[in-house]
Design brief:
Elements (H helix, E strand, L loop, with lengths): L3 E5 L6 E4 L24 H6 L9 E4 L2 H12 L4 H15 L10 E6 L5 E6 L36 H12 L4 H14 L1 E2 L2 H8 L2 H6 L1 H7 L11 E2 L2 H19 L2 H12 L6 H6 L3 E3 L2 E5 L2 E5 L6 H12 L4 H4 L4 H21 L10 H4 L2 H9 L1
Parallel strand pairs: 1-10
Antiparallel strand pairs: 2-3, 4-5, 5-8, 6-7, 9-10
Helix pairs in contact: 2-3, 3-4, 3-5, 5-9, 9-10, 12-14
Length: about 375
């Protein structure tokens, strides 16, 4: 039987682009689809749900305007990579909490010739980073040092990652895929309830930083549904990237301003950190579950290995016979997840610093060991 493919792209927050099935409905979008902060669907409802299908392509993201950007790129003749990059840049504008040019990510690519690739453009620690930088003189962790101070800021990888993917496998120019994001930042976009919910969670933090408050608060007050959010400074940064490419971000005034802000607030970022930043290409993790083949992210992401270990453990159990969402099926799924996540937390890490025992974790021996537990 020919294997069906699934791409599990655990891309930092941002973007999920399907290369195999396709598509998108733009009309009649339910209100819950415009609210990315709503709770998950119930299992009973999920059991009755039917997959969305289309004939040509599919774009999925966390924000409907960004999704539409990707759809339009495809309609204009762009390929999956063109649409992915355009959508990701649009998310930098429309989904500021989780998709932005100051972060990083992963990308899975499935090429026409059947080859699968993994692109790693996660953030990197500054060259001056040290093992004890988040500890006090007594060796105890300083609360918030790694999450709420400039010491916790890494070198962003998004711009180099997206631009590299576009240059290598895209068909459109950087200007073409960036223009929609620039327009959204410059002209603004109407805020839906989901956008407001995301912004409102961070009001207290916004008020601590005047430059941030000037963008994400309206005259020092929270935005409301129907308001228009404009981001002229972000539009300017995107324009610089459009004109100068990757160098504009890593060696130009954008990097200089980030480094300056870091130094002014006790951070350790330097221009050398930006100049030395690099991305990496490698093979993704693959595994099978009955007639399905899964393709996902390898370390430094732990997701692919963990998911494959879970599926390997479950493979020999008659889950279908137990019934969807039944007590027995749920019990076996939870127990498989517990064991896989225990291994994840114990053995997996950045391959530049440790040797990940992937072969052993995905071997039959692990399945047989856990079957006895």
């Amino acid at each position: 039987m020919k294997k069906k493919y699934f791409v599990l792209n655990i891309l930092i927050g941002v973007l999920s682009l399907c290369f195999f099935t396709a598509c998108v409905g733009q009309n009649g979008i339910p209100s819950t689809a415009l609210d990315s902060s709503v709770g998950g669907i119930s299992r009973s409802a999920l059991k009755q749900a039917k997959p969305v299908k289309a004939k040509h392509a599919m774009v999925v993201s966390a924000q409907h305007l960004a999704t539409n950007v990707g759809i339009n790129i495809l309609k204009e003749g762009g390929n999956a990579i063109d649409a992915a990059v355009a959508t990701a840049y649009a998310l930098a504008v429309t989904h500021p909490c989780c998709g932005n040019i100051g972060g990083g990510g992963f990308m899975i690519l499935h090429l026409k010739n059947g080859k699968n690739l993994f692109l790693n453009f996660r953030e990197k620690a500054p060259l001056k980073a040290a093992k004890t930088m988040f500890q006090d003189k007594n060796g105890k962790v300083v609360k918030g040092a790694s999450t709420k101070t400039y010491l916790g800021v890494g070198v962003p990888g998004t711009v180099m990652g997206l631009n590299s993917a576009l240059k290598k496998y895209g068909t459109m120019s950087l200007a073409k895929v960036l223009n929609p994001a620039i327009k959204l930042a410059k002209d603004g976009f109407v805020l839906e309830q989901g956008d407001i919910n995301i912004l409102n969670k961070r009001i207290k933090r916004f008020k601590k930083y005047p430059n941030v408050a000037s963008i994400f608060l309206k005259n020092s007050k929270p935005y409301k549904v129907g308001d228009i959010l404009k981001q002229p400074l972000l539009a300017h940064s995107l324009e610089l990237i459009k004109k100068g490419g990757t160098k504009a971000f890593y060696k130009g005034q954008i990097a200089k301003k980030i480094v300056q802000a870091s130094k002014e607030h006790g951070g350790i970022l330097s221009m050398k950190d930006f100049a030395k930043y690099s991305i990496s290409w490698s093979k993704p993790i693959t595994c099978t579950y009955h007639s399905y083949k899964f393709v996902s992210d390898p370390p430094p992401s732990s997701g692919g290995v963990t998911i494959c270990e879970i599926l390997n453990i479950l493979k020999k159990y008659p889950i279908k016979k137990y019934g969807y969402s039944s007590v027995k099926a749920t019990h076996y799924l939870v127990e498989a997840e517990r064991r896989a996540f225990a291994d994840r937390n114990t053995y997996l890490g950045d391959p530049k610093f440790i040797k990940n025992p992937i072969t052993r974790l995905l071997s039959k021996k692990i399945y047989l060991l856990y079957k006895q537990v």
